[in-house]
Amino acid sequence: MIRRGLDNEGPDRLYTVTGGRSQADEPDLDLVTLIIGTAEPGTGMQSEHVRILRMCRTPIAVVEISAELGMPVGVVKILLSDLLRANKVTARHPSSSTRARTSLPDAAILRKVLVGLHNL
What we know:
Elements: H1 5-9, H2 11-18, E1 34-37, H3 47-55, E2 60-61, H4 62-69, H5 73-85, E3 89-92, H6 98-101, H7 107-119
Antiparallel strand pairs: 1-2, 1-3
Helix pairs in contact: 4-5
C-alpha cells in the first residue's frame, strides 16, 4: 500500500486544518452528496478551501473531494461545512433521502419481479 502525504504527517496537520473541530456543522452531508461551487476562491482563504472551490466548478461528490485532497472524509465534511456556511458552495443531497424512501414500490410487486427474474 502506498501511503499518501497527509497520512504520514500525523494528526497535527488535520487538527490545524479543521481548527480543532472534530465534527461538521452540517449533519446531512454524506459520501454521495454533490457539492457545487457558487463562488470563486478569494484572497485570504485557507488553501484547502481554495482547492475545494476549484474542484467544485462542476458537481462533485464529497467522497471524491476527500480522495482528491487525500484527507479523511470527516475533515472534508468540516471544510465543506465552512464553505456552506459562507455560501461559497451548495449541496445536493442524494435522491435516497427520506422523501425517496417513502415512495418505494410495494413489497409484493418486488417479490413478483424477483420471481420473474429467477424464471428467466
